[in-house]
Amino acid sequence: MIKTDIPINQGSRATTEQGDGPPTWERDVIDKLIFASLKEQRRARRWGIFFKLAMLAYFLLILGLYLPKDIGAPRSEGHTALVDIQGIIMDGSDASADQVISGLRAAFEDENTKGIVVRINSPGGSPVQANHIFNEITRLRAKYSDIPLYAVITDICASGGYYVAVAADRIYADESSVVGSIGVLVNGFGFVDALEKIGVERRLRTAGKYKGLLDPFSPEKPEEVSHLQSVLDEIHQQFIRVVKKGRGDRLQGPEDRLFSGLVWSGREAIRLGLVDAVGSSGYVAREVIGVEEIVDFTWKQDYLERFAERLGATMGAAMSETLSARLGFEAPGLR
Question: Region Disordered: start and end of each range (predicted)?
Fold first, then answer.
């Protein structure tokens, strides 16, 4: 019996060893799949951590851009407010009336503002936009009569830029600044002879006798030129009235020279009474207002708003250019 049991047990043990699990190659495949799955999970976890950190860094960057730079610092008793007017004064630009007026209002309303510097570097632009800024400066100066406002010219302050500057208490410039251009212009082209040379016939149909005013493909008509000139003269007279109101008896020299559209250096502009003295924004803050610390109140949009408005402005400019091309001239401009 004993001899019989032994082989049976051995055979049973051999069967059990063979049936303990899957063959070796299957176990290797399962192990590889498990390790691959664990590796993929670790990789996904690392990427998740990376994106979370990236989002945190982006949030902190945006927060840093919009937080006041002097947060946490002790508040001073007063400062000089700065509002920049840079570039062409036109709707949709950084120097539009909406942008500039927003900065001016914020500067006047700040309880620590002791004086305001409007720093101008502009060749001019829209007479409408310039007039809006001039009127708002006049209103704010009357409302906050204890806060002086000074214009400081950097490189150029011509036409519409000077229109704005005369609203200030005093105007400062560098000796080499370009100042003046008190006039109005409108641009256009004529292609009548060109069409005749290439054999193209212009066909224009309008409703309204002067709807095709100064069409670039048709000969000029004296009555149309005369009408447009009267519009320019009217805007020019408005410009002259604003300059006289702002500068008063400080103007020196004959009017036919001052209001001829000429430009002068800063030094010559002082002699003509268009500018009061030589000085920079730092000089005015320190020596005139008496508060050297300057706080920038220039209105700045966030990047998304700026992108959206720039896109709209680009489309608007394209439409305006198309319209100007069809009419053959631009809208009157102070530049």
Answer: 1-23
What are the pLDDT digits (tens) for 171-185? 999 999 999 999 998
3-state DSSP assignment of residue 269:
helix
| Buried b / exposed e along 207-216 (16+ C-beta atoms within 10 A) | eeeeebbbbb
For residue 272, the 8-state DSSP code is: T
b vs e for 131-167, b when ≥16 Cβ sit within 10 Å of the residue's Cβ?
bbbbebbeebbeeeeebbbbbbbbebbbbbbbbbbbb
List all residues 6 or more positions away from 103 whose beta carbon is below 8 Å from its beta carbon.
83, 84, 297, 298, 299
Length, in residues, of the chain? 335
Instruction: Compute CA distances 53 → 46, 66, 290, whole Å.
Output: 11, 20, 47
Average pLDDT, the chain: 82
CA nearest neighbour of 276 among 183, 181, 169:
169
Name the 3-class secondary structure at 116: strand
* Spatial distance between the Cα atoms of 108 and 104, rounded to a whole number of angstroms: 6
Sign of torsion over alpha carbons 132, 330, 298, 307: positive
pLDDT at residue 132, rounded to an integer: 97
Contact 81, 291 (CB under 8 A): no
Burial of 4 (0-12, 13-18, 19+ CB in 10 A): exposed
Residues in the chain predicted with pLDDT less than 70, given as ranges, are 1-23, 63-76, 301-335
Q: In angstroms, rounded to a whole number, what is the distance separating the alpha carbons of residues 68 and 57?
A: 18
Residue 87: the pLDDT is 94
Joined together, the tokens standing for residue 257 give 């020279």
Q: What is the model's pTM?
A: 0.69
Select from 104, 95, 102 the least CA-distant residue to 160.
95
CA distances from 245 to 125, 266, 334 (A): 20, 21, 18
Q: Which residues are catalytic?
A: 159
Nearest to 158 by CA among 243, 91, 83: 243
